[in-house]
Amino acid sequence: MAEIVTVPCRTDNYAFLLHDRETGKTLLVDAPETAPIADALAARGWLLSDILVTHHHDDHVAGVEELRAANGAAVWGASADAHRLPPLDHALAEGDTVTVGSLAGSVIEVPGHTIGHIAFHFPDQRLVFTADSLMALGCGRLFEGDAAMMWSSLQKLSALPHGTLVCSGHEYTEANARFAMTIESDNAALRARSAVINDTRNRGEPTVPSKLGEELATNPFLRAHLPEVKAAVGMEEASDVEVFAEIRSRKDRF
């Protein structure tokens, strides 16, 4: 059995703690800052054993060194990005396995937001940590990669079991929902989800994680291949990647 904790950090970041009750080990996915994560660990009496890093941006790695020093945690990250990540104890590539206690996760390379971005899929826990690749009702901006690269990454994530919880890196969901409605205003599932999101945020609660099945039904960035979405953006004859690129471009200007 494992326990997951969503830790709000900075203005709108999330870090995640995954605790293995069998062995007492605890892993962290991303470290936007130190204090909220240290507080969450202390409140539960957990010792941090491992830090998993999705990509090099400061709002995902700023707390790594301080948390490593305080806990003696091992750091895992992409070998392709080792030159711009905190020093790695374990350098990873597509298909590698992360083992922490009885927890085992597989590495998925998901470039687009950055070239070296990776995700971590823990199938037994039905969790995938996607940071700034697949996000709740969105996807990351294409800072380093291109549309084809991100579309391919999203296809990998879309192929996971629909019951998988998507643990993404930011609380952008309310704005993402407003944008999604400009693409598919007639999508009943999207309208219902938008109402729930508004209520959740009004209570000051996180909208992350979300279920992959829900993303597939409502997230326009995962739906660019569908005839109804192509029609909605006036690109009925375009390729899936072209439609995805158009949706991403519209979101950038939204």
Structure description:
It is a single chain. The protein has helices at 35-44, 58-61, 64-71, 147-158, 173-183, 188-202, 212-218, 227-232, 240-253; strands at 2-9, 13-20, 25-29, 47-52, 74-78, 90-92, 97-100, 103-109, 118-122, 127-131, 134-135, 138-139, 165-168, 210-211. The chain is globular. The protein has 254 residues and is of the alpha/beta class. The mean pLDDT is 97. The protein has one domain (2-253): Ribonuclease Z/Hydroxyacylglutathione hydrolase-like (Metallo-beta-lactamase, Chain A). The protein contains nine helices and 14 strands.
Task: State the CATH architecture.
Answer: 4-Layer Sandwich
Which CATH class? Alpha Beta
What is the CA-CA span between the terminal residues?
Answer: 42 Å
Mean pLDDT: 97
The CATH topology annotation reads as: Metallo-beta-lactamase, Chain A
Strand content: 25-35%
Q: Strand order across the biggest sheet?
A: 1-2-3-4-5-6
Give the domain tally. 1
Major sheet details: 6 strands, mixed
Shape assignment: globular
Radius of gyration of CA atoms, rounded to a whole number: 18 Å
What is the number of helices? 9
**CATH homology superfamily name:** Ribonuclease Z/Hydroxyacylglutathione hydrolase-like
H/E element sequence: EEEHEHHEEEEEEEEHEHHEHHH
What features would you highlight for this structure?
254 residues, alpha/beta, Metallo-beta-lactamase, Chain A, 6-stranded mixed beta sheet, 9 helices, 34% helix, globular
